Amino acid sequence: MNGSQLSQRNEPVKIASIDLGTNTALLLIARVEKDKVIPLHNAQIILRLGRNIDASGLIQKEVFDKVLNAIIEFKATAENFNVDKIIAIGTSALRDAKNGDQLIEFIYQKTGIKIRVISGEEEARLTYFGAVSGLDHKILNSKITVIDIGGGSTEIINGLGFEIKNLASLNIGTVRITEKFFKHFPPLEEEIKYARDFINNEFEKINDKFDFADSTLVGVAATVTTIAAYDLRLETYDGEKVNMHEMRFETIDEIYNKFKKLSIDEIKKIPQISKGREDVIFAGILILRDFMKKFKFDRIIASDRGVRYGAILELQRIKF
Questions:
Q1: Which ranges in 38-162 belong to alpha helices (H)?
Q2: Rounded CA gap, 3 and 85, in Å?
Q3: pLDDT at position 3, please?
Q4: Omega before 187 cis (within 30°)?
Q5: Which of the four CATH numbers 3.30.420.150, 3.90.1150.10, 2.40.10.10, 3.40.50.10350 does domain 135-304 have?
Q6: Which residues form the Ppx/GppA phosphatase N-terminal domain (predicted)?
Q7: DSSP H or E segment with residue 248
Q8: Cβ neighbours of residue 103 under 8 Å, at least 6 residues apart?
Q9: Of 6, 22, 258, 318, whose CB is crowded by the most CB atoms within 10 A?
Q10: Mean pLDDT of all residues in 276-295
Q11: What three-state secondary structure class fits 28?
């Protein structure tokens, strides 16, 4: 069934949406009813697809089989839910890798699932629509800025309600910054300085292009949701509790100052840090903290939604 046929159906449909990111593969299975995306199942597998891409320009061959196994697992789950369609999106790592087309063809031949690689701007657009779809109406009637800190890139989008005013995709992400700057854990002060200089140089690119005044900051993706789970002291991740959780800048700054003193082994002991994220979470906290500081955001709201929700909304051509 194609997207046009899906969008013409009046009854609810079920869609599986896969987001193949630089660090993590995410699966959302959702029921779509009129203008609402109702999540039925979420799953994640940390693959580190973007490992060493900055240095080599290539996705490592051993990662091909990891991606294949993840897609096979996601496809089986989707079939168990009897979905009407499976869609798959590729982001920063697949945009950057010289052999990204080889991986896409490999996955298609083995599974029949075609990964669609989207541009940084399209990623930003889908992220924004996914994020705001989970906000309450009071926030929807105000100016909104969405930040999506991924493994390879960070998307910044601001708008009013469901109308995007401006967007940008910056080449700073948790995996990219970690591999480029952090050789020690805890990181050396010199390493943090060089990382911050690089990050803030990227922020300078949007300094005169965005109007952040009186805007509500919403954060999506694992850095923000992990920090929210940590702030809530959740022993087991709960998207419903994380979604709409508000944190002040002082809280983010306090978490930053704590994590910059921790070793990898110490971070591994923190229950809110998923296995495979222990070495990149500090880079994400640093990006978020410096963004909020530079652009004078005093608080952030966590959203458990993002690209995979936006991709479903796009497929359905839902009119907001």
A1: 53-56, 61-80, 92-96, 100-111, 120-132, 137-140
A2: 9
A3: 45
A4: no
A5: 3.30.420.150
A6: 29-314
A7: strand 246-248
A8: 59, 64, 67, 94, 97, 115
A9: 22
A10: 97
A11: strand
The Cα 220–Cα 123 span in angstroms is 12
Q: Give span(s): CATH 3.30.420.40, the chain.
A: 3-120
What is the C-alpha to C-alpha distance for residues 231 and 180, in angstroms, rounded to an integer? 28
| Angle between helical axes of 222-232 and 249-259 (0-180°, round to 10) | 90
Burial letters 250-272, b for 16+ CB under 10 A, else e: ebbeebbeebbebeeeebeeeeb
Q: How confident is the model at residue 136 (pLDDT cuts 50, 70, 90)?
A: confident
The two tokens of residue 208 are 């005169």
Q: Are strands 13-20 and 24-33 parallel, antiparallel or unpaired?
A: antiparallel
DSSP label of 22: S
Output the pTM of the full model: 0.92
Residues 19 and 213: their CA atoms lie apart, in Å, by 31
